[in-house]
Amino acid sequence: MTPLLENHLGGRWQTGSGAGTPLFDPVLGTELARISSAGLDLADGFDYARQRGGAGLRALTYTERAALLARVAEALQRQRDAHFDIAQQNSGTTRNDSAVDIDGAIFTLGQYARWGAKLGDARWLTDGAATRLGKDGSFQSGHVLTSQRGLVLCINAFNFPAWGLWEKAAPALLSGVPVVVKPASATAWLTQRMVADVVAAGVLPDGAISVVCGSSEGLLDALQPFDLLSFTGSADTARAIRQHAAVLHHGVRMNVETDSLNSALLGPDATPGSDAFASAMREVVREMTIKSGQKCTAIRRVLVPREHAGAAAEAVAAALADVEVGNPRNESVRMGSLANRAQANAVREGIDALAGEAKCVFAGDLAALVDADPAVGAFAMPHLFAVDDADASRLVHEVEVFGPVATVVPYRDAAHAFALARRGAGSLVASVFTADEAFAERAAIEIGHAHGRVHVVTPAVAKTHTGHGNVMPMSLHGGPGRAGGGEELGGLRALAFYHQRSAVQGPQSLVESILGKAAAFPDA
Ligand code: NAP
């Protein structure tokens, strides 16, 4: 039996009891390690994080905490090779795909370190200037944001074991809030190892970071008023969590990031042969195949003027035919496996469901796998679908197939295209490919309310844009409705979740003194 990975809780390493849950290599099928959180005293461990970790972090200024983030990034950088190795073994990803997760994490930490340094020696933030409450100005009101005095429980999805942790932990630690991370079981190893590396580096105050690997049982019961819950995962799990007593009765503040039927929208001017058309096709193929389509931001629906739908489907299918799928240890392989067999089965079911409604334009052949056995590995081949009647189709707008799968959806005119983008019922991102900036502006404003991010690619930025699915810390990540209603990143604004905003009313001298010692939010 493989060894149990330890949990870091209560300022020490602890092994869960029982045989635990095995983690597998999704390509070779071999067992890698086991995880268990059974028998851990969660209430005690959470209290330690709140008391020790919280006090240790709050004793520091923003600049000092920012310096810690930079040292965390350095500690991770030193172990980067080991992290890539774990990702290859436990997530089945190619080096390029692992980089999205691992280097994305280091970049995000570094960015928050740079932003945090600008907040200076303050320990709280101010939101706007003081205002008079009485006629003579002697009694005033100002708003401050002070560090939340609980912990943040980060429950993460399997597809980003590295970035998923640090994109939350960076603004939390900068805000003075201790982090308890519960990684998704299937790929918990990388998260656990990264926490172990940071703990070993002795960078963070005692109790500032904890990791619990294993079942989620009891985690929410251990939450208290002033704790925070940051959840990333499926809409179904989010629904269950929203009903939990901690949320209903303790008012635990939640940020929820769930699934999404993101779209790419080709402008009416993006005719086959145009630069905008070519950019869109490239991006659709990239999005379908990066991390084998296991990205919450991946393009699922390709909205195309109906007269060009056939050409778009042909172009994407031709490019997909060249994608080598298989064992990421083989250098010719561009797309690795899914995270596990359960995900492969779910993707298979999703493909079968879509096939009942849409025409399959391209289906990769499992027999073409490179260096891998389809009977053992958790593979899904790229599949492209197309529908004729975008309005009559339902599943294409509702079912998130979490793999290398997308559907070409024809639209009549701009208003129809915007309505179809909104059929995702709230998405993380839509991209717009056009050379017509007036159209792009109209699209951004028309569909903005249903999206966390609108990503516009004109030919002028075809080579410089950051990618439809890449989540940059400068831009908001999250989305309304089905996407969960959460807001992450987006610069220093992310700190708002980890602070309590409160008004201070009092004598002018007092309000001015408090605001004078604060860092201005969010413009630092
Ligand atoms: P999931 O099954 O919902 O699991 C997410 C996390 O919740 C895991 O850590 C899981 O632990 C835990 N969990 C399960 N049941 C729970 C419960 N009753 N109480 C508390 N925690 C519970 O999702 P997933 O399969 O890992 O991730 C795929 C989904 O995440 C996709 O739909 C994708 O779109 C979405 N996603 C969204 C974003 C975003 O930023 N919007 C980012 C990445 C992924 P176990 O693993 O131990 O069950």
Sequence-ordered SSE layout with sheet pairings:
Layout: E1 7-9, E2 12-14, E3 21-24, E4 31-35, H1 42-58, H2 62-78, H3 80-91, H4 95-117, E5 125-126, E6 131-132, E7 139-147, E8 152-155, H5 163-175, E9 179-182, H6 188-201, E10 209-211, E11 228-232, H7 235-242, H8 245-250, E12 253-257, E13 262-266, H9 275-289, E14 299-305, H10 309-320, H11 341-355, E15 359-363, E16 383-386, H12 395-398, E17 405-411, H13 414-422, E18 427-433, H14 437-447, E19 451-457, E20 476-479, E21 486-489, E22 499-507, H15 508-516, E23 519-520
Parallel strand pairs: 5-23, 8-9, 8-11, 9-10, 11-12, 13-14, 13-18, 14-17, 16-17, 18-19
Antiparallel strand pairs: 1-2, 3-4, 5-7, 6-7, 7-22, 15-16, 20-21
Helix pairs in contact: 2-4, 2-5, 3-4, 3-6, 4-5, 9-10, 13-14
The chain binds NADP nicotinamide-adenine-dinucleotide phosphate (NAP).
Residues 155-160, 182, 184-185, 216, 232-234, 237, 240-241, 257-260, 296, 400, 402, 428, 483-484 line the site of NADP nicotinamide-adenine-dinucleotide phosphate.
Give your account of this protein's structure.
- α2 packs antiparallel against α5 (163-175), α3 crosses α4 and α9 crosses α10.
- It is built from 15 helices and 23 strands.
- The chain has helices spanning 42-58, 62-78, 80-91, 95-117, 163-175, 188-201, 235-242, 245-250, 275-289, 309-320, 341-355, 395-398, 414-422, 437-447, 508-516, and strands at 7-9, 12-14, 21-24, 31-35, 125-126, 131-132, 139-147, 152-155, 179-182, 209-211, 228-232, 253-257, 262-266, 299-305, 359-363, 383-386, 405-411, 427-433, 451-457, 476-479, 486-489, 499-507, 519-520.
- The chain has a seven-stranded mixed sheet, with helices on both faces.
- The protein is of the alpha/beta class.
- α6 links the parallel β9 and β10 (209-211).
- The model has no long low-confidence stretch (mean pLDDT 97).
- Helices cover 35% and strands 21% of the residues.
- It binds NADP nicotinamide-adenine-dinucleotide phosphate.
- Residues 155-160, 182, 184-185, 216, 232-234, 237, 240-241, 257-260, 296, 400, 402, 428, 483-484 line the site of NADP nicotinamide-adenine-dinucleotide phosphate.
